[in-house]
Amino acid sequence: MPKVSTNISIDADTKKKAQALLSDFGMDLSTAVNIFLKQMIYEGTFPFTITRESPNAVTLAAMKETEEMRRHPEKYASYKDVDQMMGDILSEV
User: Fold this and answer.
1) Dist CA 47 CA 58 (whole Å)
2) DSSP per-residue codes, 7-48
3) What is the CA radius of gyration of the chain?
4) Cα–Cα distance for residue pair 86/92, rounded to 1 Å
5) What is the pLDDT at residue 78?
6) How many CA atoms lie within 13 A of 2 on its CB side?
7) What is the pLDDT of residue 7?
8) Is the dihedral of CA 67, 70, 71, 77 positive or negative?
9) What is the Cα–Cα distance from 49 to 47, expressed in whole angstroms?
10) Number of C-beta neighbours around residue 47 at 10 A
11) In this predicted model, what pLDDT tens digit does every residue of 22-80 receive, in sequence order?
């Protein structure tokens, strides 16, 4: 299959470190990018897991609320079962 040239932007330090590592594997950056793209196509997704390094704002708010509930359980209702909770909720309507 004919090859086409593609330009990508990479910061200089990342490129230098990647090239050094890839050299240890006996390949160049172009070969590594081709392997990555072919594996992505084969799997139909990224060939590795992508996760957030830190919780997002919604998760942080939920964590804060949970911590508040642990510190002051007397401020929050507690239920033995769902029926008891639903009875409480429906009585407020």
Assistant:
1) 28
2) -----HHHHHHHHHHHHHHT--HHHHHHHHHHHHHHHTS-SS
3) 26
4) 10
5) 86
6) 2
7) 93
8) positive
9) 7
10) 13
11) 999 999 999 999 999 999 999 999 998 888 778 889 999 999 999 999 999 888 888 89
Q: How far apart are CA 64 and CA 62, in angstroms?
A: 5
Q: How confident is the model at residue 11 (pLDDT cuts 50, 70, 90)?
A: very high
- Tell which residue, 51, 48, 7, 45, has the closest CA to residue 29: 7
pTM of the model: 0.53
CA distances in angstroms from 87 to 37, 73, 92, listed in the order given: 55, 20, 9
The Cα–Cα gap between 88 and 77 comes to 9
Token code pair at residue 12? 């200089």
The confidence score (pLDDT) of residue 49 equals 87
Query: What token pair was written down for 37?
Result: 């793209």
Q: Which two tokens stand for residue 78?
A: 């507690």
Token pair, residue 46, equals 């990224």
